[in-house]
Amino acid sequence: MRYTSAAIESLVDELAKLPGIGRKTAQRLAMHILQEPRDEAEKLAQALVDVKDKVVRCSVCQNVTDRDTDPCTVCSSRMRDRSVICVVESPVDMLAFEKTGYYKGLYHVLHGVISPLDGIGPDDIKIRELLVRLGDLEHKDVREIVLALNPTVEGETTALYLGRLLKPLGISVTRIARGIPVGAELEFVDEATLSRALEGRSAI
C-alpha cells in the first residue's frame, strides 16, 4: 500500500529499515506517530538525535555510554570484581547478563564476530582494544576471561581465535556452559545441544 502523503511514505520507508520491522509494522508505527500530539513526536525526534550526538563507546570496555560518562558506570564501579572480564558480542548481550544480577565482573564488547564470508576479520571488531586493555597496569589483576559468544559458526570461530590469543598471556580463558533450556523437551533438542549438555554436566 502506498500513501498519498509523501511525508508518510518517507517515514514508513525509514522505519522499515530498522531490524525486525517489516513494512506493515512500519506503516502501523507511522500512523501511530501521525496520531500522536506534536510534542510526543518531537520527543521521539529529539531522542533519536540525542542517541547520535551523546552516545559514545566506553574507552575501556567498548560498551555504549553517554559522552559525559566515560568510562562507563560498570568500568568505573569499585564494587565490580576486577579479576574477571566477560567478553560479549554486543551491548544487548551485556544487558542480558546484567539482568540476571548474578555476574559481578567487568565486560568487553566486541561489536561483532569474525565472519570471513561477510568480510569481517579480527581487525574489524574490538579485539585489539581487549589486548591493549589486558596490557594496561590498571587491569593487572585480571585472572580470567569468560567468552560469552553466541553458539554460531561465527561465534565459535571468534572464541577459538580469542582462546589462541589469550592463553599465552597466562590468563585463564573459559566459556559459558551450553545446555538444554529450562522447559524444553529432550526429544526436540538438537544433537549438538544435547552433546554439550552432557559435556557440561555437574553434580547435584
Can you put this structure into words, describing what you see?
- By secondary structure, the protein is an alpha/beta fold.
- It has a domain at 80-175: Dna Topoisomerase Vi A Subunit, Chain: A, domain 2, CATH 3.40.1360.
- 42% of the residues lie in helices and 13% in strands.
- It has eight helices and six strands, in the order H-H-H-E-E-H-E-H-E-H-E-H-E-H.
- It has helices at residues 6-15, 23-35, 38-54, 73-76, 91-100, 127-135, 153-166, 191-199; strands at 55-57, 64-66, 81-88, 105-109, 144-147, 172-175.
- Strands 4-3-5-6 form a four-stranded parallel beta sheet. Strands 1-2 form a two-stranded antiparallel ribbon.
- Helix 1 (6-15) packs across helix 2 (23-35).
- The longest helix has 17 residues, at 38-54.
- The model has no long low-confidence stretch (mean pLDDT 91).
